[in-house]
Write a structure and sequence with these properties.
Strands 2-3-4-5-6 form a 5-stranded mixed β-sheet, covered by helices on one side. The N and C termini lie far apart (62 Å). It has 3 helices and 7 strands; from the N terminus they run E-H-E-E-E-E-E-E-H-H. A hairpin with a 4-residue loop joins strand 3 and strand 4. Helix content is 14%, strand content 34%.
């Protein structure tokens, strides 16, 4: 459960244990979605008039292409989560760390904040392994599974001066 009654939160903090499904309506087109539901755990508490604080964590898995060879790789996301929720009329509306909610609402929905943290936490790129050789620039064969008969790529002459300096270094 990732939605909480605001009135009950004002008198007692809530333990949060829930899942954000991969097909939830909070996801938008183009989002890098998890391959399985995101696990959410933590504590949601009252932090003053029209303000609430969530402290916890999220974890999940996604699939991405290796940066060098384009092989599908599973990437893990395990992040601490700290959110402040404040009513929309509050003066902190321009603070990126504060998530606004409708002051007239009866429920506080954590899903948009979790989605945002997920998207910011997913790695920008992954490697299938540290020594990934990538793809051949000419024929496109995966160099991790074998070599090709292509001629080695010619080096660019604009780097020759630096190569000469490197050979002089101890």
């Amino acid at each position: 459960m990732l939605s909480f009654d605001i009135r009950s939160l004002e008198s007692q903090a809530a333990q949060v244990e829930g899942l954000l499904a991969t097909d939830d309506s909070v996801w938008e087109d183009g989002d890098l979605r998890p391959t399985s539901p995101i696990k959410v755990g933590g504590r949601l508490s009252y932090a003053g008039p029209s303000r609430f604080y969530f402290s916890g964590s999220i974890s999940g898995q996604t699939e991405m292409s290796c940066r060098r060879c384009l092989t599908e790789v599973e990437a893990s996301v395990d992040e601490e989560a700290h959110f402040i929720f404040s009513s929309e009329g509050d003066d902190t509306s321009d603070d990126p760390d504060v998530h606004p909610f409708d002051e007239q609402a009866h429920n506080l929905d954590l899903r948009p904040a979790i989605r945002e943290l997920w998207l910011l936490s997913v790695p920008g790129f992954v490697l299938c392994r540290e020594d990934c050789k990538g793809l051949c620039r000419s024929c496109g064969i995966d160099l991790n599974s074998g070599s090709c008969d292509c001629a080695p790529a010619a080096t660019e002459s604009r780097w020759d001066a630096l190569r000469g300096i490197r050979s002089q270094l101890p």
